[in-house]
Write a structure and sequence with these properties.
Chain A is mainly α. Chain A contains 12 helices and no strands. Chain B has 344 residues and is mainly alpha-helical. In chain B, a hairpin with a 2-residue loop joins strand 5 and strand 6. Classes of the chains: A mainly alpha (236), B mainly alpha (344).
Chain lengths: 236, 344
């Protein structure tokens, strides 16, 4: 059964429970984790046949990722984040954090272990990093507008320094397009953004430089987290 | 007092293509260091969303935009990869981070060093010459007016609110008045404030400049500073102080090298940098490293080559003796090389 197969390192928060339920629904009830994983690999292999539509062939090591993150790297809502075009250094660090148990997720923790071999890891990551993320046609830069009414957009471009919150775009770039290993937020699935911001806030995610993201997330209200997630998810 | 300004602006136009032949004034004199003050004493500017939709309000908005994204002036007035907001956090509003409201109210200011009264606009021009390693926008140019208007708007809103005059709109002043600055006799404040802030004595608002740090227990060490840098700063400012540039935008500022501030900028002083770093870094966290570490990492950052001091006329020793009698490494030997000899 699902619960008995959760590794001890996993932080069994409400979110994770919800997610396990979704995974269960997605994969069929009563599958053991091993079955889920093998199921995913099978599904990945199945999707491999669709790879001819894409410029780069999917390397075998990336097929464990494609069933949730999709061969396009666009991910699935309520399941897996978009990783297409993400900075390779960022992706590598996240896989390493999952392997080390410093970041945990009922599905990603075991999946990360499957690409722990440095060569496989690099191969899979380079594949997704090479994919294109949706183009942001007119990126909004910090400073473009003095007057911003929408509270989420105001946080993104001006921050709230009464709480020592710098503008999100300072590190995550114009329209949240990402700045090297400061990850892209633009067009990310809103459920993922919300879950991650709450994980930073609740200290169930860590591992950034100087705990800057954690410090900022702990200042955000849950309403702001929802609003910010929606803002970045729908940025064009 | 402004007669020399046009000649000055014209002279500085050539400052980085050829060696400056006209002497530049030392406009980035050391910021007066104050002890740290209580947050409740600091001015809090009004929210940006209250900037009026008027021609004056448009200047304020333009000033904000230029201040935050100064790279829009790249190649015109800016010749490095800096933005004003890099050193003046929260778009120049944050106390203890050299806020614009504090500076605006401190000018015009008499400087005994050059026996001259400098206006607020001239002070901003100095920032362009040194911190932006560029060419200052001329007096009355839309850019200089906009930056002055924004500074004034921050200061006046903060003052009005501090004196419980929240309902009083910020008066719209002439371009001449805002370029002069808030410390002049002609800059009339409401009666309630005049007693506390008579003209000529408005330069010491609480939260102005960067709060002074105690002298370090040990002499600042470049070697110890390098360790602090690699542990705490390099993830954003790069292994070689180059900052981070992506998607054509310099998101994290270069701290040394060709794209950084030059040898005449205030931030090349070890003490100024230590005050700034201790109080404001890392971004979003503020005070994190120890005071000694702040001194050490400031020494490390400022012991690297950067763009040449625009006042340099070919004799490093002479320039050092004339303008560098402070805590800095210009003209000094670090790792076998004299800093300033291989400037950009």
């Amino acid at each position: 059964m699902w619960k008995t197969t959760i590794p001890k390192t996993i932080n069994n928060t409400d979110n994770n429970k919800k997610k396990s339920l979704k995974i269960k629904q997605y994969c069929g009830a009563n599958m053991s984790l091993i079955k889920i994983v093998t199921g995913y690999i099978g599904l990945g292999a199945l999707l491999l046949s669709a790879s001819s539509a894409f410029a780069a062939p999917i390397p075998p090591s990336a097929t464990v990722c494609t069933s949730c993150h999709m061969p396009t790297g666009m991910g699935l809502p309520n399941m897996a984040p978009m990783i297409a075009g993400k900075n390779a250094e960022y992706l590598t660090r996240q896989i390493d954090l999952f392997i080390a148990g410093e970041r945990s997720d009922p599905l990603m923790t075991p999946m990360a272990g499957l690409i722990s071999d440095p060569k496989k890891k690099a191969e899979a990551i380079n594949y997704f990093a090479s994919l294109s993320a949706p183009e942001i046609k007119n990126p909004e830069h910090r400073g473009d507008h003095a007057i911003i009414e929408d509270p989420a957009r105001k946080l993104v471009y001006q921050g709230d320094w009464n709480r020592n919150i710098p503008a999100c775009s300072t590190c995550h770039g114009a329209s949240g397009i990402g700045v090297q290993d400061f990850p892209r937020l633009a067009n990310q699935h809103p459920d993922y953004l919300e879950e991650q911001l709450k994980a930073w806030k609740n200290k169930t995610r860590s591992g950034d430089h100087n705990d800057v993201m954690g410090s900022i997330a702990r200042q955000l209200t849950d309403t702001e987290i929802t609003q910010l997630s929606h803002y970045f998810a729908t940025v064009k | 007092m402004n007669k020399t300004l046009i000649t000055l602006a014209a002279a500085t136009l050539f400052s980085h293509s050829v060696l400056a032949t006209t002497e530049l004034p030392d406009k980035q004199a050391e910021l007066p260091a104050h002890p740290k003050t209580e947050k409740s004493d600091h001015l809090v500017p009004r929210d940006l969303s209250t900037i009026p939709n008027t021609p004056f309000g448009d200047k304020v908005k333009q000033g904000y935009s230029l201040f935050v994204n100064t790279q829009t002036l790249q190649g015109k007035y800016v010749n490095n990869q800096q933005n004003c907001v890099n050193c003046h956090m929260q778009a120049g509003m944050k106390a203890d981070s050299a806020p614009l409201w504090g500076a605006f109210m401190a000018y015009p200011a008499y400087r005994s060093k050059n026996d001259k009264v400098n206006t607020y606009a001239e002070r901003i021009q100095g920032c362009f010459t040194y911190s932006m390693n560029g060419t200052p926008p001329p007096k009355d140019s839309p850019e200089l007016v906009a930056l002055s208007a924004y500074s004034y708007w921050l200061a006046m809103g903060g003052l009005l609110d501090k004196y419980d005059m929240q309902d009083t709109p910020i008066p719209e002043l002439s371009d001449a008045a805002i370029q002069l600055g808030g410390n002049d006799e002609s800059f009339i404040l409401p009666a309630e404030m005049m007693q506390d802030l008579p003209a000529g004595k408005r330069g010491k608002l609480a939260g102005r400049s960067f709060p002074k740090l105690d002298k370090p227990e040990q002499v600042p060490s470049i070697e110890r500073g390098e360790i602090v840098y690699n542990t705490t700063c390099a993830s954003c400012h790069g292994a070689n102080g180059e900052g981070i540039r992506d998607h054509g935008v310099q998101s994290f500022p270069p701290l040394w090298g060709k794209d950084s501030f030059n040898w005449g900028a205030g931030m090349h002083r070890v003490n100024t940098a230590a005050f700034f770093i201790y109080e404001n870094m890392p971004l979003g966290k503020s005070i994190q490293i120890t005071k000694q570490e702040a001194w050490d990492v400031a020494a490390f950052m400022n012991s690297h080559e950067r763009p040449q001091d625009p006042r340099f006329t070919g004799d490093l020793k002479a320039n050092q003796e004339k303008y560098h009698n402070h805590q800095g490494y210009y003209g000094k030997t670090v790792n076998g090389k004299v800093l300033g000899e291989h400037s950009y």
